[in-house]
Amino acid sequence: MFFDRPEPGRRAVLLSLRLGDGRGPNARTATCVAADGVAGARPSRAAVDDEFRHLVESAEIRPARLVGGARPRPHPRWFAGAGKVDELATALQSEHADLLVVNHELTAGQQRNLEERLGCRVMTRTELILHIFADRARTREGQLQVELAQLTHARTRIVRGWTHLDRQRGGLAMRGAGEKQIELDARMLRMRIRSVQERLQSVHGQRERSRRRRQRTGVPTVALVGYTNAGKSTLFNALTRSDGNGSGALVADRLFATLDPLMRRVEIEGAGHVVLADTVGFIRDLPVSLVEAFRATLEQVRQADLLLHVMDATAPDVDDLHREVRDVLERIGASGVPTVEVLNKIDAADAPALAPGDAPRVAVSAVRGDGLDALRGMIGGAVGVAARPLTVFLDPSAGKVRARLYERGAVISETTAEDGRLSLCVRLDGEEAARLRALGVELRESQAFD
């Protein structure tokens, strides 16, 4: 939008350096769409580079070669040293590549200098993820969040960025004669950001009203969380398939295949109806400029009644990823939410050596269906209602109470008693049972299940 830049290509040379203490692309380890960054386990160089390649491929860019290296700190002019820049120029020429993707965040000056030196488009990690997010967003909320993230990132690019921003112009409808182009662009960005934020607030208000309706009806929410590409969407589809809902989550072997949160109501034995929510995955070093834009997306994680922490059994560093996700949940204020750990993809790997944890754990294959009944049982036990059914007697005129019980998924069976009243066998939690008794509804312990 503000840059005179080379046209982007689809065949890329990748640059990934170890900086400072060697803790990853930007001396950080993990973050997600609602966290500022997490310090903790140090990922291996191979894990960082493999994830970087997968991220590039998820953007439908063909990686031709990865150039690595180490520096105590970024070079102020090119980020990489002069010798490494020469190596990049040689790699671009020999591989016939027209794009350099850098697994780091660059200043506007570093990015401009690299493009002038190499004669090709340079894409930062932030721009790469923004490109993927823009391609994945389908809902109005998701598109607004991506636009907000793009505008927030663009605002950092115009500061001392490109030569055309030094032009001045004046006249009517301007703030004043001699206003610089950079000031005009910055003002337009601020106005656009404010407009997008206002529209997002409207969408968030609708989501909050829906959440309050679910709370009033007592329908619990179960949110799937975990590292990206751990199989959350496949598991989501497997758990909702029995309801015959054909509009499942997108499943693909790529990072951030699911960006927009997807929610479905399903019936779980022992719990009645629950709302299952598929959320965007975590990833190492998600840029800070994306944090605020997507913070509201994971509101449902903090407000969920139960989290399913999905882990990839085939990941060689599954234990490290497990710790990183737990750190992220703590940072976003969701560490106190009850959690069931789901070790997925057991059909494709031997059981990994996972450190014992406090949360209950179950091994499943979302593709084959192994372990899903056990998982449903754990969900029912975690968010379910009292195990012993009750019999509720209602007058025929108590249609609202009857409708509420059915809406909660609490009704097991219904008959008509000899005195003409409705007899409903139900499962209720203590709070709902107390509410019915306060309304004068007769409840008895059911004898049918003795």
Detailed description of the structure:
The chain is α/β, with parallel strands linked by helices. It folds into 4 domains: 11-133, GTPase HflX, N-terminal domain (Rossmann fold, 3-Layer(aba) Sandwich), CATH 3.40.50.11060; 138-201, no CATH class; 218-383, P-loop containing nucleotide triphosphate hydrolases (Rossmann fold), CATH 3.40.50; 390-445, 2-Layer Sandwich (Alpha-Beta Plaits). It has helices spanning 45-58, 82-94, 108-118, 125-136, 140-157, 181-217, 232-240, 299-303, 318-331, 372-383, 399-407, 430-438, and strands at 11-19, 62-71, 99-102, 121-123, 168-169, 179-180, 221-226, 262-268, 272-278, 306-312, 339-344, 361-363, 390-394, 411-416, 422-426, 442-445. The longest helix is centred in the middle third of the chain and has 37 residues, at 181-217. 39% of the residues are buried.
Query: What percent of the residues sit in helical stretches (DSSP H or I)?
Result: 25-40%
CATH architecture of the largest domain: 3-Layer(aba) Sandwich
Strand residues, percent? 15-25%
Regions with little confidence, pLDDT below 50 for 5+ residues: 22-41, 159-177
Helical segment count: 12
The strand count comes to 16
CATH superfamily of the largest domain, called what? P-loop containing nucleotide triphosphate hydrolases
Q: What is the CATH topology of the largest domain?
A: Rossmann fold
Say what oligomer this is: single chain
